[in-house]
Amino acid sequence: MTSISSRRLRKELTEIQTEGCPTGITLLSADNFETWYFSIEILGESLYQGEVFKLMFRFDSSYPISAPAVQFVVNQESTAPVHPHVYSNGHICASILGTEWSPVLSVSAVCVTLQSMLASCKSKERPVDNDRYVRYAPDNPKKTRFHYDGK
Amino acid sequence: MSMMDYVEQPNSNLICCICHAPFTNPTTARTCLHTFCHDCIAVAVQHSPQCPIDRSSLSLDDLSPANPIVKHLVDELIIECPNRVSGCTQTFQRQLLSAHVKDTCLYVEIPCSEEQCDKLILRKDVGKHKDACVYRSTQCDGCGTTIKYSDLSTHNSECPSKSAMCNFCFEEFPRSQSQAHAATCLDYEISCTQADNGCSWTGPRHQLSDEHILSCPYEAIKGFFFINSTQLSSLNTENAALRQKVYALESVVQTMRRDIQTFINVLGPWYRSHIQSQSPPIAPSSINAFDHLFSAPPGPSSSSSRITTNQAQPSFSADHGELTAHNDIDALAPYFPLPHEHAFQESHNYPRSRRSFSGIVDPHLSQRTLPLTPVAPLNLSTSLEGSLSSLRDSIAAVSTSVDSLARRNDIALTNESMRLNEELGSLKYAVHGIRLQLHRLMMDRNAQVTGRGGEPPSGPSGNQTIFYPPISMMTPSFPGPPGTKL
């Protein structure tokens, strides 16, 4: 990994370890500068009260110039939240993870954004094209070209 | 720029929000006035042409160096030496980093100053390494010369001042004396003194005189070898001298052969090989005869040669005009007939011109009808020089002869015309007498016819009969009327 992305990630990790994560976010593992895991839960009044999800960040060498690949982990232990912008395979349709990404954003900023996205959810339902997307979806959500509708 | 460890947490306003580290080459966007590291914002704008913070559009042209205050603030941040891991505990302003690493940091690896050494040493260990580097210069403790440490062991085995050990007697001595030792060591292996003569014995020196010499078969005939070698060397010397002489003579022969060839070329047809040159012995006489063809007026060309001419004559046909080939090998002979002895003498008689005058009988005339005299043949068997000189003499003789002939012709012509004049005068006189006689006869007849001729006037005319020319002169008849006009 080139120095610029690893240096930046080392700084973020140091920050998380020294100052802690935002409330409701916990660092599960960050063994390298390629894949990090976080757990995320929504505190306060929300449709997802009591549910805990698992987030996976995958970084490439162009981070932080380009966005990390972020998705919910779907396996025997955890599932993706039922949300109009979250597909059942864990992929998230969020503009800040695609075209709206800015180098200024960080791992914890992404976590907080997703937290607020879930908290603001009005009805627990899958995206309308969930089945079709999941059938053909690539492994890496960054390879999907989402159409953001602003909801 | 490499990662730096700051002694204190930098002010968060000095942190680039892309790399999350204090600015490096702080750069401010002119449009939105946000500040980033130059490298960070350049890459970000190339990826997406907007400000990472407020997403306002941004291009590379909108970037400019940040306010100098910002630059000074980040440059003066105190950092730890990047070689802290190696042991450097120094801290200094960030802008002094490169100077520190380059010149003062003791924990930087620098190459050894010895050219051949390719090791990298921490600056603090340079002094230690200098004493340990295998390429360092060192001095031989024996001879004092300066050599590389790595070459020291090689040098030790060669250094003349170090001690060496004899391979035979195992005695130790300085190496510089090894040759002297080899010449004296009793155990040193040497060959027999008669090795040159064929003895193949080798052994320790002390055995040579003690044992081997007593039994060596070559030693027994040492005297013979000595005499033999002396003779051989003298023969060799002589042989060399002789060889040199032969070389010299060969070169002389070569030169002579070249000269001879040149002469042969020059001589051309005059050159005869040894066998051909044994031509008929008349050669000298014929060439002498040739010298005197047309018999030049008696001159320095000697009476002796004339004698040889006379001697040679019998070999020619004596009759002038008959040019008989007297010699088969001399094809040119007919063109140079030898002059007849008689002609030879005659050629000097001046009054010979009468020959053309038929009325006078000259006893010599009958032998002078031949202008062509025999000439000696050209003889190729004589020397070129002789031939040439004889030819030249001949030409001189010919020219003289021609000259005298011309003169004789002149005189003859003059004589002839004088004689003619004389005769013409006498004839004129005779005719005149005849006319007078005729006139008298006419006068007499006229007197008889007329009856009374002049008696007395004819008296004196009788005297004229004395002048009667000879009878023979009167025979010619005058066909026409008397030539009274005479």
Automatic annotation (TrEMBL), chain A:
Domain of life: Eukaryota
Keyword Iron-sulfur included in the entry's annotation: no
Entry keyword Cytoplasm: no
UniProt domain UBC core: residue ranges: 4-151
SUPFAM superfamilies hit by this protein: UBC-like
Annotated coiled-coil segments of the chain: none
Keywords: Ubl conjugation pathway
Entries under Pfam families matching the protein: UQ_con
Name under which the protein is recorded: Ubiquitin-conjugating enzyme/RWD-like protein
Origin species: Suillus discolor
Automatic annotation (TrEMBL), chain B:
Molecular function as annotated in GO: zinc ion binding
Location of the RING-type domain: 16-55
Keywords in alphabetical order: Metal-binding, Zinc, Zinc-finger
Region (Disordered): 297-320, 448-486
Pfam family, one: zf-TRAF
Keyword Lipid metabolism among record annotations: no
Location of the TRAF-type domain: 79-117, 129-179
Zinc finger (TRAF-type): 79-117, 129-179
Composition skew (Polar residues), residue ranges: 306-316
Name used for this protein in its record: Uncharacterized protein
Organism, as annotated: Suillus discolor
